[in-house]
Amino acid sequence: MKFTFSSLAIALLLFQSCSQKTDKVILKNDILSDCNKAIQNAIVVDHVSAPVGARRYFYASIAAYESLVPFYPSQKSLVKQLHGLKELPTIDTSKGYCLDLVALAAHTTVSKIVVYKEDSINSYRKRMLDWYENQLPSSTFKNSISWGDSVGVAIAKWSKSDSFSYFRGRDFYLAKTEPGFWTPTPSEFKQAVEPMWGHIRTAVVPLKPGMGDATYGIRYGNEPFGIKITKICNDPDSIRKHQTPNYWFQFSLAEPFARSKSSRFYSLCQEVYDVSKTLDSAQLRIAKYWDDNPNSTVHYGHATISVLKVSPAGHWLGIFSSVAKQKKYTLIQSAEGMALLSSAIHDAFVTCWKVKYETEYVRPVNAVRELIDSSWLPVIETPSFPEYPSGHSVVSSSAATVLTKIFGEFEFTDSTEKEFGLGVRTFKNFDEARNEACVSRLFGGIHFIDAIEKGKLLGNKVGETILNRLVTRN
Question: CA 381, CA 390: separation in Å to the nearest integer?
Fold first, then answer.
């Protein structure tokens, strides 16, 4: 009996010492996956565009990562690596903290600011804070929230300098009437989505000459910047061979519009049309599985109903979470990976939209209806922005490039779409998933093959740039 009491006393003293001094605890390694689900729910409720959704994940993921960096000496902050991010608050790490609560506080502080309807974020945050309060000493609970919130506020302040707010209400787009240019597409004929997104600040891709300030970001010596759109070239090897050192990336113009049945443009239209007429069940499933259009609608009689779908950013971050869970990733490994992946996806959207609204290329549905079949419609809804390049191809290629670097060649099961009634799919590696996501746009009838193949090249370049520029380890 005496031995039992002594052991108990020692254990209590150790617990008190840890909780009062330098105790760092982690209760939920996968908390950031839950945080991203909260953003996904807000995107569905807000009906925002895919680029806007990606921006939300980006800033929230950076906040979560930066809130954890001071506790891990091997990790390197992204301050002065990300465009315009100059400084963050400092912390007294000698206090007691719950690190997953820190990351939760930082992530939700940002996400409730960058969403439109913050109720879903607030309700999730309150539910989780109530749970943590019952698990932790009061001082640890308060310290964790205070630090996480302070980082979140700083990241949210940084987000306000990326030109997003400036372009709200200034993004009217007047479609051209000449053949070959984008115009609103059937059956919804919606206005152009985010025509100014190519002017939003990137994470690291050098689209503008760096000025060292919050508007233009950081200049890396005399590096090349911007995207040059050149004459038509359909040979990837030739494109790489003729890259000019004066630009970050060189992108060729799309095939010119032509009515002649012997023209290459007509053959591109014919390909989309023929594929839509011969789709098998597997191809149709692929088209719907990767649709990822958070703004899609369906009609029942006179009723128009919005369809709940995950966004491209949400889909690829969901894939990250699935693989991270399979590989038993730690909290900081997940935060680091999400910071890199969300940066790549954000920059993929900005660079893609820059080219889309400079080329202003016609969508297959309008071209096919003019040249081949006036009543034709694709099997999935055509998103409301120009054709070239394919956004899914740019985003998926950038994501696959980053994920392959993080995880290597890895077979995985993607269950992101399961809650939306589309089941699960298994891939032998990230490139296979990328390739399926890209070709899904041809199966869906919403992209020409050129937009898909050129989009892959741009996405690969974005992913490589993220990996080369962002250093997360000391």
Answer: 14
> In the Cβ-directed half-sphere of 247, how many Cα atoms lie within 13 Å?
16
The reply to whether 118 falls in a domain is yes
Helix (H) or strand (E) holding 249: strand 249-252
- Torsion, Cα 24 28 30 31, to 10 degrees, reads -90
- Domain hosting 451: range is 179-195+260-469
Task: Please state, in angstroms and rounded to a whole number, the distance separating the CA atoms of residues 210 and 202.
Answer: 11
C-beta atoms surrounding 190 within 10 Å: 15
Amino acid at 126: K
In a domain, 135, yes or no: yes
Query: Cα(48)–Cα(166) distance, rounded to whole angstroms?
Result: 17
Structure confidence by residue, pLDDT tens digits, 146-195: 999 999 999 999 999 999 999 988 888 999 999 999 999 998 899 999 99
pTM above 0.85, yes or no: yes
Burial class of residue 338, CB neighbours in 10 A (0-12, 13-18, 19+): buried
Q: Are residues 189 and 113 in the same domain?
A: no
Asked if residue 441 and residue 328 are part of one domain, the reply reads yes
Residues 286, 372: one domain? yes
Instruction: Report pLDDT for 245.
Output: 54
**Which structure tokens are listed for 172?**
């009217």
Nearest to 51 by CA among 441, 340, 346: 346
Residue with tokens 């090897």: 237
Looking at the fold, whether 364 and 270 belong to one and the same domain comes out as yes
